[in-house]
Amino acid sequence: MFISVIPALKMPAGHDFFDYKLEDGSVHVGDLIFVPFRNRLIPGLVAKISPTSDVADKAIALPNPDKILKLPEVIADYCRQAAHELFVSPATLLHAWLRVVPKRLSSDEPHTPYHLSRLPKDAKQFEEKFLVNRYTGTGGLIETVQKEQANGRILILTPWQSRVDYLKNKLGCDGFHAMTAAGAAWKAWTGFLAEPHGMLVTTRLGAWLGICADIVIIDEPENDDYKQDELTPRYDARRLAKLAAEYNPALRVISIGTTPRLESAPSQATAPKIEVELKIEPLAPGSRSNVESLSARAANLIAQSIEDKRSVRVLHAVGGARGRIRCSDCGWVMPCPKCDYGMSNMATHAQCRRCGHKEDLPLACPTCGGPDLAKSIIGGDLMQKQLSKAYPQGDIKVLDLSEWQLQSLPPKSLIIITNINSVGGYTEDVRRKERLVIAFRRLASQASLAQCELLVQGPEDLVNESRGWLDDEGLKKSWTKEFEDRRQFGYPPARRLVKLIAMAKAQETDPITVELQEQLGQYGWEIRGPYAVENRPNTREPRLAYHLIPPPELDFKQIIDILTPFSSLGILDLDPIAFFS
Fewest 10 Å CB contacts: which of 59, 338, 432, 444? Predict the structure, then answer.
């Protein structure tokens, strides 16, 4: 007998299996075993067992292979299909999923029970819930887990590492993310497989385990942090959950969020109204306080909150002392020597927020010799110092976007957003509004649950519009307009856009563009670009991004089949979260 094995290795697309001759012992499709490869043993997934092989004369003999895990038989086809959609080899994808397999394994053999052949009575395979209180409220994530715990294994997917830790503590279960040690991560997910009613919380790293679960719960499905935008394979946890449900008809997928995604416009599901004490403050000249980036009204509210013994939390996206190192006289901005991005003043040193490079702070402008290099927006560290000096008795904290995710809001506190434009984080102009609305509704729901007062500063048109985002009618209006804008310019989700990232330099006659136009253009595909990928470290090769827009009549499978021959040109992304980088 011969076994075809998907090795856990980084391999080029088009290489699916290694064949081995099974001399003795027994294995089954779905078994994870050790196989020999270049004088060492590596993990491999048994994908096929056959009495014949096309490479029978070259197949390595494999006597009684060591088994690692017994996984569902369907996982082999699931891995191959996911790899096909990502234009990578199944081996590369399996390597990304497994990460590190310990050299010393437990004597126990965790395995998955057989799935049901049909859904439980009265259960829907796909269910969506939109709630203000996503976690502890009625119908929220915690109540849902408790209700469904007797129905099998529950895999909880969440977009952030900090949320994994929060939910682990709330649910009393295990979990892992990118910062979890390899051994601890292995123990967490194999322990999940060993229990017929186990629970596991993870980020996109563990999304593939949905094929081994009975229920997958997706926390905040509207958040694009379910997918990375660097390197490959760049899989989306939400797509893996849907694909797992296609291969396992008994799998239930429950999504619990606050905001319907833009994809559902203009007839999206009803969004819950967020009741919060909201104050808006258009930024205007002459309204500033003695604390930079805060208006006089914000300062008055802080003073009143301190008098009332209430906490104050300020969301300010800019860290360090200053957003940039900029000359007040000539406007020179210190560039990063590694990636050419503007350097930030971190008080004790200069640092690039794009690639992380650090340098000493310059003493003067190299262009004009000016000594004042502080013509830039204030950073959170310096703002904290100014607030502590102005209100020494107050409980005031200035937090950036990443720190905000780790904090719980004190009840009845005052929340100040210094600029609503920054709430959605850094993103391209095309998607800025979408991410901003989602993030603002999430923040407002936090404030609502903690009964906080919320002051929002920013451009007049934006802060006035933000009030409408908190109810269903205003959100639908905003989403419908955004969807129409995307339709007019041919951007997702109104049109499918495939991004190709190639390692190449911009040149007058681009051979990749010529090839794409010749091979795809004649069939009605629109080719845009190339666009140079900016702000890359010098250690990385130059990259160009191309936009490939298929004819509207092509379905998902047809697009994949047509594009597969072009995967050798670079990274193909069917559902990009950033269009130009």
Answer: 432
Burial (0-12, 13-18, 19+ Cβ within 10 Å), 10: middle
Burial bucket for residue 230 (CB in 10 Å: 0-12, 13-18, 19+): exposed
In a shared domain, residues 9 and 137? no
Residue 423: give the domain boundaries: 274-318+378-470
Together in a domain, 248 and 340 = no
Q: CA 339, CA 298: separation in Å to the nearest integer?
A: 37
CATH of the domain at 239: 3.40.50.300
Residues 334 and 298 in one domain: no
Helix boundaries (H) for 156-259: 161-171, 182-194, 237-247
Residue 405 — pLDDT band, cuts 50, 70, 90?
Answer: confident
Q: What is the DSSP string of 81-129?
A: HHHHHHTS-HHHHHHHHH----SS--SS--BPPPPPSSPPTT--SEEEE
CB 155 within 8 A of CB 216: yes
Give the closest residue to 325 by CA, choosing from 345, 303, 341. 345
Q: Which residue has 């709330």 as its token pair?
A: 170
Stated pTM of the model: 0.90
464: closest CA among 420, 428, 500, 505? 420
First to last CA, the chain: 48
Residue 113, domain member (yes or no): no
* pLDDT above 70: residue 246: yes
- CA geometry: angle 460, 463, 465, nearest 5 deg: 105
Q: Are residues 309 and 453 in the same domain?
A: yes
Counting DSSP H helices and E strands in the chain, the numbers are 14, 24
